[in-house]
């Protein structure tokens, strides 16, 4: 469909004083955003959301656990849902704060501004991936690029494939992640490996390079920390080793999310709405 603003030319003109100035049409910016989102690895289902309350581009504002989930829940589950919503609210505030920090640091190129990463940690289905992916999407729309999103299991599947490929090298996979302005490593520790040393070496290289370059890394994981009061294993350190867990603890302070699996509650709510 031809852009009505520029009739497909990609630019328009505006008058300043006695001069007519050529400027890029806004449609070109949207093409650039879509290209960057396509290269980012952010799942498409999250690209329609925003952490902002009223995004000007028409995306959907992220909402904490919706009220309709609570229909027909037991008293105990309803309490867990409230806990989930409270933890989401805290995590959302931190994500919004990091968004503003990253935006200021990368747009001004001021290296004195700290750009810490963080870890969203908690049970599956509490909104960790949704929140982290939405934060990356907001950054792309604000002009911060490149950003990268990669799921832990997918990363190592790609690396294994590269070792038998004549066209894809390990560095082709890792270097974009090392150099991304902001990286999200999703579902850390999700799959156990027989070659623990190899996994630790890959993650150690990736995280240490980013740490040395002062580039923020966002992590999501379902695994608890052995320092958590009352927590039981397996712990993240069981998957990654004590040394790497210590580095992550320094790079990515944990934001603990609690509550029920919202995907399960959503399915239950939908099923209750169906005719019997």
Instruction: Supply the CATH class.
Output: Alpha Beta
Please mark out the parts with pLDDT under 50 across 5 or more consecutive residues, or reply none. Answer: none
Strand proportion, as a percent range, falls in 5-15%
User: What is the rounded Rg?
Assistant: 21 Å
Question: How would you sum up the major sheet?
Answer: 5 strands, parallel
CATH architecture: 3-Layer(aba) Sandwich
CATH superfamily heading:
P-loop containing nucleotide triphosphate hydrolases
The end-to-end distance, rounded to whole angstroms, is 45 Å
Number of helices: 9
Structural class: alpha/beta
**Helix-residue proportion:** 40-55%
Number of domains: 1
Count all strands and give the number.
9
By CATH, the topology is Rossmann fold
Shape: globular
Keywords:
two-stranded antiparallel sheet, alpha/beta, Rossmann fold, 276 residues, 9 strands
Describe this structure in words.
With 276 residues, this protein is of the alpha/beta class. The chain is built from 9 helices and 9 strands.
In short:
46% of the residues lie in helices and 14% in strands. The protein has nine helices and nine strands.
Helix-strand layout with pairing:
Elements: E1 11-16, E2 19-24, H1 26-40, E3 49-50, E4 60-61, H2 75-108, E5 118-121, H3 128-141, E6 147-151, H4 152-162, H5 170-179, E7 182-186, H6 196-212, E8 217-221, H7 236-240, H8 242-251, E9 254-256, H9 262-272
Helix pairs in contact: 2-3, 5-6, 6-8
């Amino acid at each position: 469909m031809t852009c009505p603003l520029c009739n497909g030319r990609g630019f328009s003109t505006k008058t300043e004083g006695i001069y007519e100035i050529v400027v890029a049409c806004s449609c070109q910016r949207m093409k650039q955003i879509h290209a960057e989102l396509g290269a980012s690895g952010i799942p498409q289902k999250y690209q329609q959301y925003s952490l902002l309350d009223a995004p000007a581009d028409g995306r959907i504002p992220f909402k904490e656990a919706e009220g309709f989930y609570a229909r027909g829940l037991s008293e105990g589950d309803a309490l867990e849902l409230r806990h989930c919503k409270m933890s989401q609210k805290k995590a959302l505030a931190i994500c919004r704060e990091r968004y503003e920090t990253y935006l200021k640091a990368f747009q001004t190129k001021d290296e004195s501004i700290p750009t810490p990463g963080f870890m969203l940690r908690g049970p599956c289905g509490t909104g960790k991936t949704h929140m982290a992916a939405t934060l990356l999407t907001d950054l792309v729309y604000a002009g911060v690029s490149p950003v990268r999103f990669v799921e832990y299991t997918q990363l190592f599947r790609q690396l294994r494939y590269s070792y038998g490929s004549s066209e894809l090298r390990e560095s082709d996979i890792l270097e974009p992640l090392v150099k991304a302005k902001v990286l999200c490593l999703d579902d850390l520790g999700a799959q156990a490996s027989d070659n623990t040393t190899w996994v630790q070496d890959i993650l150690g290289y990736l995280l240490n390079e980013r740490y040395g370059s002062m580039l923020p890394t966002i992590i999501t994981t379902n695994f608890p920390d052995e320092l958590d009061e009352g927590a039981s294993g397996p712990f993240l350190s069981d998957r990654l080793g004590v040394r790497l867990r210590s580095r992550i603890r320094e790079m990515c302070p944990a934001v603990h999310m609690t509550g029920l699996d919202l995907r399960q509650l959503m399915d239950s709510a939908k099923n209750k709405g169906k005719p019997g």
